[in-house]
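Fresh eyes needed here. I'd like your take on this protein's tokenised backbone:
***
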Amino acid sequence: MTVHHLSSTRAATLIAMENHSFKRWPHRPTCVAALGAGLAVLTVSLATGCSEGATSAGTGNRFVQGDDGIGTVHAQEERPKAPSLEGSRLGGGSLTLSDYRGKVVVINIWGSWCSPCRAEVPNLLKVAGELQDEVQFVGINTQDISQAPALAFERNFRITYPSWYDPIGKKILQFPQGSLNPKFIPSTVVIDKKGRIAARALKAVTEEDLRKMIDPLLKEH
């Protein structure tokens, strides 16, 4: 496990971005911060970390977890529905997940501050390029307090697929319980052609990991 420590200034900025508009932020140690908010008095506790892998995303899910850290739901009827993600695109404009219905979609959750995220980018780009006609890659940029470092990250790695800008992790929390754990960044989920979550990896992914999650879905009708 690789751990990154969050400066008090950055942490305060992330909290202030909510501008006291939220009612509750679930207690969760993340790669950047775990924020706990009381309903009557706004109390925030901070813990930091960045994980290269995990074996569970909570209870009550139908994922079969392999020794390689990849969880899959083989039975199509048991796959949880992906959330209706939409919102601001990193760099400007808007982004809507439903626009890609009918294609396999790979959603990678990343931050410019995260070393494992940087390590996995070449694998994501290689597979995205090879499968560009069949698979849509998209990202969720999280816990970057401004777009500037995230955009620099995209330029440095020549990332061409789009990402949502999600600085406080709201989109991550839209995923069904047990399908994705906001403790672990990076994470990758793969959506089948009918908009259901078929596979996930709560770690930095290799080319082999991506192919293992994607290839069976391409054969489905």
